């Protein structure tokens, strides 16, 4: 049975009204900041499940791009979505293998939260309806493969990471940071920051700490906002661009 955009659901909340309220406010605040601060770059999502957050991001792009009289300068932005549509990969990394969500609850098991059939086609149709034939992409496959075969090459102003696993989050963050794709002031939205009982040894908390440490002081981050019980948004700072060593 084919679904419509109105039938797309969110995996974190059974109450879709609550999901729309929480994500809608957080995403809108991120857009207000990025557009108001004139930060260049595209909007990228890693992990989309049924496309709930994808369509929220797409609608905000349409809305904010139309506000030409309010924002003095608006950069061209694309929307790029990466997902396997097959659910979680097998947890081969030891950090994930011993994490609460894998070894205790078992919720992040292989192929869990696979996208319903037709999700990729639905997203392609909805994005084409909003943006036409260009300025967007839906890339199917595991991050470790698609970030090689279809790497991001343009600046990224907002990255929504719904990667869940530590290993998947590392693959994405290392790509963004290692290729210096995040301009100063970019926003990282981390959907699963408080998963694994918010323990810093696991998941996105550990991935953020380790991946930013690997930039050798070129990048740093600070908290922007919190959303729901699970999400955290961060500002990204490019300290390596500063001519003053004391600011690095």
TrEMBL record:
Keywords: Methyltransferase, Transferase
UniProt keyword annotation of Transferase present: yes
Molecular function GO labels: methyltransferase activity
GO biological process, one term: methylation
Keyword Methyltransferase: yes
SUPFAM superfamilies according to UniProt: S-adenosyl-L-methionine-dependent methyltransferases (SSF53335)
Protein name, entry field: Macrocin-O-methyltransferase (TylF)
Organism: Saccharopolyspora antimicrobica
């Amino acid at each position: 049975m084919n679904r419509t955009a109105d039938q797309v659901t969110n995996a974190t909340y059974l109450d879709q009204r609550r999901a729309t309220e929480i994500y809608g406010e957080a995403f809108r605040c991120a857009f207000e900041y990025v557009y108001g601060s004139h930060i260049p770059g595209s909007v990228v999502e890693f992990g989309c499940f049924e496309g709930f957050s994808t369509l929220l991001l797409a609608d905000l792009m349409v809305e904010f791009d139309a506000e030409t009289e309010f924002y003095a300068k608006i950069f061209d932005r694309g929307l790029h979505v990466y997902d396997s549509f097959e659910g979680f990969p097998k947890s081969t990394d030891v950090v994930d293998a011993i994490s609460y969500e894998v070894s205790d609850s078992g919720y992040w098991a292989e192929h869990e939260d696979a996208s319903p059939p037709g999700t990729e086609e639905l997203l392609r149709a909805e994005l084409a309806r909003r943006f036409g034939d260009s300025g967007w992409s839906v890339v199917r496959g595991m991050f470790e493969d698609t970030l090689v075969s279809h790497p991001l090459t343009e600046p990224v102003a907002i990255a929504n990471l719904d990667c869940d696993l530590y290993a998947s989050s590392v693959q994405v963050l290392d790509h963004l940071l290692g290729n210096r794709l995040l301009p100063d002031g970019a926003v990282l939205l981390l959907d699963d920051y408080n998963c694994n009982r918010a323990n810093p040894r696991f998941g996105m908390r550990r991935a953020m700490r380790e991946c930013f440490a690997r930039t050798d002081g070129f990048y740093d981050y600070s908290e922007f906002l919190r959303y729901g019980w699970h999400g955290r948004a961060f500002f990204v700072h490019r300290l390596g661009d500063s001519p003053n060593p004391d600011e690095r």
